Amino acid sequence: MKILYEDAHIIVVWKPAGIESQASRGLGDDVVSGLKRHIHNSSPKAGEPYVGVIHRLDKPVSGILVYAKDRDAASSLSKQVSDGTMDKRYLAVVCGQVDKNVDKFVDYLLKDQKKNISRIVDMGITGGKRAELSYQVLKSSLMESYGILTLLEITLYTGRHHQIRVQMAAHGLPIWGDRKYNPAFFQAGGREEDIALSSFQLSFLHPVTGKLMNFCRMPDRGIFRGF
């Protein structure tokens, strides 16, 4: 985990693949626990430090996240997420040639709690939630052993469970390395965190000053190196 920015109200981090965004039920480390230790070490005080989770990334996905250091900041940032003014952009490497250089997907996703997966359902199905994203093609390349792979920039307008992974796979553009939604993918010795999806850009208004905050960091591991 790398801290990109911190002040009295917020803290912005780069989450590496393989770490949970929030408190984990298992024995592995997570970002929230790491931030609480960091805050305590930086300014020790009585009681457990407050770290408000604003949005999340799947464990195998790397990227930029903002956390709140007080409840008022958490409320302001959460409102930006709910009203769509927080701008979240991703890089993804998908398998195959993409026919349209720019496109938008609008679907309805239903989460299966027991299996921890989501799937696309018809509008009106109980529990189905609207999911919207758009993409643009950045580059396609012929990779030895994998065939044609395409690098996409994805803008996320809603934040559903496994949304990008589900929608891209359902529309015939499965993400490289995604063992959950891309069953055809196989790499001997590969790890779960090899999934080629990363939240590389995040923009929002500072909850106190109102200043536009913009952060960008490019993924530099795995198949991304080929691009």
Write up this protein.
The protein is mainly β and 227 residues long. It has three helices and eleven strands, in the order E-E-H-E-E-H-E-E-E-E-E-H-E-E. It has helices at residues 31-42, 71-82, 163-170; strands at residues 2-6, 10-15, 52-53, 62-68, 87-95, 102-112, 117-121, 129-143, 147-156, 197-205, 212-216. Strands 1, 2, 3, 4, 5, 6, 7, 8, 9, 10 and 11 form an eleven-stranded mixed sheet that branches. Strand 1 (2-6) and strand 2 (10-15) form a beta hairpin. The mean pLDDT is 90.
In short:
The chain has 227 residues and is mainly beta. It is 14% helix and 37% strand. A hairpin with a 3-residue loop joins strand 8 (129-143) and strand 9 (147-156).
- Helical segment count: 3
Extended strand count: 11
Query: N- to C-terminal separation?
Result: 23 Å
Largest sheet: 11 strands, mixed
What is the percentage of strand-forming residues?
35-45%
Structural class of the secondary elements? mainly beta
Mean pLDDT: 90
The coarse overall form would be globular
Low-pLDDT sequence parts: none
What is the N-to-C order of secondary-structure elements (H for helix, E for strand)? Answer: EEHEEHEEEEEHEE
| Oligomeric state as shown | single chain
The percent range for helix content is 10-25%
